[in-house]
Amino acid sequence: MSRVIRIAVVVLAATLTFATQAVPVDAKEIKKFFGTYLGAADIKLPEGLQERNLRLIIKPHGDKGFSVHWTTVIQNPDGRGKVRDLSAKFSPRNRPGVFAAEMKQDVFGNRIPLDPMTGEPFFWAGLKDNTLTVHTLFVNETGGYEMQIYKRTLTNTGIDVVFDRVVDGIPRKTIKATLRRARDCDWKWVCDNGTCTWSASNCRK
To answer: What are the pLDDT tens digits along the chain (205 aa)?
Structure first.
């Protein structure tokens, strides 16, 4: 069986599982992750360390689901930053602690995951104890695959993040970061005279 067919079978099985009727998941288990978190990580590159500033927002979505908005600011030598955003929405399915992504609508109006066979990322999430894990699967043009795995574990002050990138089963990168819980505000990356930081506005109580 070819690599593409094997991946297609796995994705199809997962999609069929996610399409079944949802069962209740304890809302408290997800609710404890809700909030805004800020932090930074140093990435080791051939030319030296590169600082990446991070923002994570986890909010409720639908009936006992959640959304994740992940922002990475890559620092340039001149102090400015390149901002990358990634977001996804999830809802519980028929397996406790397993969540399917709701990224687009099908012809019947149901929210469904994207299709990795067309080059789109396929998301799903798992919840166990104090760790929320989001998986992202990419299938490339040659039939290979890439997995990006974000493990977010609650701490007393925020969330510890471990990011793993795996290509065709081979680990390529691991990044660890510590994020602290921040106020419920609109946070924006702002630079002034070469100094950059997160700036808050419209803070809620």
So the answer is: 444 434 444 443 444 343 333 344 455 788 999 999 999 988 876 666 778 899 999 999 887 889 999 999 987 655 566 888 988 999 887 788 889 887 555 544 555 555 666 667 788 899 998 999 999 988 888 888 899 999 999 999 999 999 999 999 999 989 999 999 999 999 998 887 777 889 999 998 7
Rounded distance between C-alpha atoms, residue 116 and residue 88, angstroms: 15
**Quick one: CATH architecture of 3-201?**
Beta Barrel (2.40)
pTM: 0.77
Q: Where is 7: in which H helix or E strand?
A: helix 3-18
Q: How buried is residue 59: exposed, middle or buried, by Cβ count under 10 Å (0-12/13-18/19+)?
A: middle
Q: Using the Cα atoms of residue 133, residue 34, residue 52 and residue 123 in order, give the sign of their dihedral.
A: positive
Adjacent-strand bridge partners of 99 = 92, 125
